[in-house]
Amino acid sequence: MQVNSNNFVSLAEIAIHNPELQDAVSDGTRRAYDKRANSMFADSNEQGEAMRHQAFEAKRRALRNLPDLLEKAESNLLSNGFKVLWAVDADEANRQVQAILKDHEASTVIKSKSMLTEEIGLNHILEDSDIRVVETDLGEYIIQLNNEPPSHIVAPVIHKTKAEIRDIFIREINMEYTDDAGEMVAYARKMLRRDFLNADVGISGGNFIIAETGSLGLVMNEGNGRMCTTMPNVHIALVGIEKVIENLEDYATLDQVLTRSGTGQNLTVYTNIINGPSRESEVDGPDEVYVIFVDNGRSEVYGTKYTEALSCIRCGACQNACPVYRSVGGHAYGWVYGGPIGAVLTPLYTGLENATPLPHASSLCGSCKQVCPVDIDLPRMLLDLRYDLVHEKVDNKWQLGLRGWAMGMQSPLLYGMGAKAARMGQKLMGDNMPGVLGNWTEYRDFPDFAPKSFHEMWQDRQKGKLQ
Amino acid sequence: MSSREKILGRLRAAQKPFTDIPPVTQPRHMVPDVVDMGPAELQARFMAELELLGCTIYRPSDNQDALDHIIAHIGDAKQVLSWDDAHLPVTGLSAALKEASIDVMPFNDGEAYVGITGADAALAATGSVIVSSGAGKFRTASLLPDIHIAIVDANKLVADFETWIANQREQGLSAFRESSNTTIITGPSKTADIAQILIKGAHGPRKLHVVLVNAAVS
Ligand code: SF4
Known about the structure:
The structure holds two protein chains of two kinds. Chain A is of the alpha/beta class. In chain A, 52% of the residues lie in helices and 10% in strands. Chain A folds into two domains: 5-300, 3-Layer(aba) Sandwich (Rossmann fold), CATH 3.40.50.10420; 411-462, no CATH class. Chain A is globular, with a radius of gyration of 25 Å. A six-stranded parallel sheet of chain B has the order 1-12-7-4-2-3, with helices on both faces. At the A-B interface, α2, α3, α4, α8 and α10 of A face α1, α5, α6, β9 and β10 of B. Iron/sulfur cluster binds next to α14 of chain A. Residues 153, 312-318, 341, 371-374, 376 of chain A line the site of iron/sulfur cluster (SF4).
């Protein structure tokens, strides 16, 4: 997917002036936030925090041995009958999927929700080669009909009201007018049923790969994911290399903190553990199951001070908790992942120069870390990214402007030039001020410096130049 | 160099992260209060959780009662998907279906209104029913129909997800890996994607009805 994160400020402005989005996002995130708290701490605060810590350790332990664990996972996946492929980047992953589809002469693909496939822009690539791609998660189906990307990791259409969704169904799939959400769901169920029964290939993501048993773990509520992994003859799972965990015990821990933090459920309706293709004695299930391990920037983050970002289990809790996300929604972040985790992952995966405003799209209130089921220190990483913005000379325009400021501020000898330097700095940087002023100017215009300072005017007057 | 080698090579060249994470100790269970429960308490908890999820439950008094109940529950639906008798904890269901002129459809029939399965295990803490795929235990029976009837043997009830996993390990993980698909079903299919309004029956069954056999009747 194309990166549009440098336009965060203008995208946020659009979101702020969209009353439907404002209602939908604030309502949706608030409810999810409450559900998470009730569910994680259902037993006691102490128990909830202990489980977070257990999940934290499980994920960090897996990352510590990531290369070994990937190899172990691969060999166990293979012995369960999976086919395993590795893709360095989006292009390679897309080509691998295309090749599999071609091999099977596939024309219709059903998909269950996968953020990774959004990342690599799979749908458009397939559609360009005349494959019919049907998103089957209800939220994803709605935004596909409306030609939009998802705006939330767990609830892709959180930014739309019921009335907006109804209008999309009427316009795009000829639904008869109704205000009843149940009738809308029933209509979508009917529309998608045909595709579930007839599609050639199912594509999914993967919540976890369990190394010890060579299993693919998938969680969902609607059942569409089970359809995608059961009905077609071929199933392809695209999985980020960071998704591998050690064993079933860790799966139990991580899966339960994921569902409690994401939707407030003890378990999602379907917790699926897939151990390869259908066995000979079975009448249903796919004959071929592929796991594609996708890197796409992850190995470059591994081992850096941002490694802990790879422990994200995509629960969306940090989005629900973030005051910035709550007021601008997910699309403003300009790529696949919105909210605090998006503000960290977007610069890491797509390049800091492509997402310079995102490290500043945070009030650093700390809520995101507090709700994160694997205790990722998002505020610390946002600060480090701000540091990198300045010290790695990411943005020349930004840098020159800063130097202008620094010159004026540092030396008494340059005092007389200070105001000029400031003006120069402002011209170079436009209205987006760096550092502490960044948050302020994201939503407000920085006042222009006077054309001449008092000091300069005084000097001019002494020289008799002032009219 | 293959992509596999490239990726693994990059990971191996990086500085190893999180070297200070301690080795695993005895992990906690997410829902601690079920761990030490006896069978009667587990059953009560299982039933309470099922109700919270919007499931319905029936505890038949004997095999005939179970069969009669299932036939009555199918009602006017004349077509069902069903697991083979050998994998159901009741005796003679297929004969009873035949007698009631209910057709047992092939696995890929998208119209059958009711699906009947057994269960490999059930979890008290979360009101979950576990189905694993195999010969005579196809996946679509718990997926395609509007109504899923799960016939659960109360003797297969365990405390929670963690206990079930411990049992898999005890029995040897190769048996677990033999099944290509294990699904832990917790309530009827649902969605809240339209403005957080909870709707049951998104793509899977809209109702989950549990027939609990060999249950302790309190
Ligand atoms: S960073 Fe943490 S809270 Fe945010 S989506 Fe990932 S796991 Fe959830």
